[in-house]
Amino acid sequence: MVIELPVVSPMNAPRSAYIHIPFCRHRCGYCNFTVIAGRQDLHRSYLNALKAELALLGEPVEVDTVYLGGGTPTELQLSEFHELMELVKFWFPLAVDGEFTTEANPEDITPEYVQLFQKFGINRVSLGGQSFDESKLAVLERNHSPVQLKQCFELLSPIDSISMDLIFGVPDESLQQWETDLKLLLEYQPTHLSTYGLTIEKGTPFWSRFENGELEELSDDLQREFYLTARHMLTDHSYHHYEVSNYAKPGFECRHNEAYWFGEPYFAAGPGAARYVDGFRQVNHRSTTTYIRKALEGKSVVAESEHVTGEELYREILVFALRRLDGITDAWFQQKTGMTPWELAGEQLEKFIEQGFFQRTGDQLCLTEEGLLVSDSLWPHLL
After folding, report:
1. Which of 17, 285, 292, 339 is 20 to 30 A distant from 153 in Cα terms?
2. pTM of the complete model
3. Are 94 and 199 part of one and the same domain?
């Protein structure tokens, strides 16, 4: 069955675009993203396939945010990244004051790459740093060194906004190690950071090692300590904790991700990329080689397509919006869906309030600190 992309018209065009670049030098043991490692020979055909997919837009679409994710966008050679930028800038011209993000690995950042970022208006770089601790980086199978990571902040100083990912809960990690990571990060004052507890996912090399007893997950109590340590240290240093896993200096919240959390439509292209346009949620083929083959043969690259409407859609909007620490108001949710959150899921929400996971102030509903600690276990009850 051939699955077509939704028709994009000026009235329903999304204001955000995501481009997935699937290449990595090495696939880290914990990674379950759409990634292909060590395949530089596919870079050229990938760019041609992406060009074919984007041509289905018919005409350029102005957006407020562009996000290049992966994989590792900076795994591309400079000339290939230049070509990617020309393609993206043509199909998704950025509005004035728009946000243009690329993910990057520390070992790839060079003065030449930074010049390319500036040339094409990239004003936000998200670093996959994960840790300043050499032993943690080794466990996580990261290729960069703490020294390279520190050098990145100096090299990227011309860029308006620098975000960094930090992972906690690595096997055998101590609370002191985590505190040291946070203190080192605070020395460099990135404008944004994301903190994630390590999860060992089925299908990853880490899962096999976990099953064999080679890796042990940290206790829930210690994971809780890690999370609260980050929350308290970062907010004490003027970072706004604005989403379950995300912190920002005032005014540097990730606008692209906020489009997801507010239930806005978004376009996406590349292997495994998921889009939401005109009520359709679609996911491209995760296999990079399948994606390339289908695109170059003029066939649809879409693997899954679902029309999301009614209660299912409203529940998704509710859950994503409640990830933000400001939560939602009755008025906002009713304007978005035509009903209040209490009409949609009042019984469950009241139960969570009684359990201390949410609090209601006037018509505002948001997570409590206790709710933040268990939020992943709450969402399935609201979907």
Report:
1. 17
2. 0.93
3. yes
